[in-house]
Amino acid sequence: MTVIGKTQLSLLLLAGGQGSRLGGRDKGLMAWQGRPIAAHLVAMIRPLVGEVIISCNRNHSEYQRWADQLVSDQNAEYPGPLAGILSGLNECKSSHLLVVPCDLPQLDQALLIQLLEQAASQPTIPWLIKVGDAWQPLVSVIPQQRLPELQCAWDQGQRSPLRWLLSQNHGVLTLPADDLRLHNANCLEDWQ
After folding, report:
1. What is the spatial distance between Cα 10 and Cα 43, in angstroms, rounded to a whole number?
2. Domain ranges in the chain?
């Protein structure tokens, strides 16, 4: 089986949101197991990738500690995660971008390896995850060569990562509905 190797893979950690469901707190800096979730996720994922890019719109000095490169949205009005993905693809030095949001404290390396193995079977298409009937488009593998299509969609007003990914020829890793590794921590209780 073809493998997307470490040197061909960049991580894009999405940490650019407003944290509106957390009272304005920066999700990427929420404490998880004694350290910021961004630090936790980067430490877990770094062995799989050759480059770490963090998309953030504030607290740059904090995020710089864990990233090889930072990107920010061009629009200061928090246009959403697709803006971060576009910025990440623009700066990606690898052939593939592994996209991970910062609000998944239960995420584990085994799941990412499973996704990467699937993506390696058809490396020219984006891959995303479905848990039961719920799509998880923010955990995905996107070939860097898809940048022109994404830029075109963005210029035409597309703002939904899911709609853009589904508009592409894509692959899907399907997980059972009771798999909690992709549970979004969107409220304070999820972080305790």
Report:
1. 14
2. 6-191
How far apart are alpha carbons 130 and 67 in whole angstroms? 28
The answer, yes or no, to whether residue 191 has pLDDT greater than 80, is no
What are the φ/ψ torsions at residue 65 (nearest 5 degrees)? -65, -25
CA distance 150 to 191: 33
Q: Model-level pTM greater than 0.85?
A: yes
One-character DSSP codes across the chain: -----GGGEEEEEEE-S--GGGTT--GGGSEETTEEHHHHHHHHHGGG-SEEEEEESS-HHHHHTT-SEEE--SSTT---HHHHHHHHHHH--SSEEEEEETT-TT--HHHHHHHHHHHHHSTTS-EEEEETTEEEEEEEEEEGGGHHHHHHHHHTT---HHHHHHHSS-EEEEE-TT--TT----SGGGG-
Whether domain 6-191 has CATH 1.10.10.10: no
Residues 49, 6 contacting (CB under 8 angstroms): yes
Query: Where do we find the tokens 């350290």?
Result: 35
**Using one digit for the tens of pLDDT, what is the confidence trace for 128-173?**
999 999 999 999 999 999 999 999 999 999 999 999 999 999 999 9
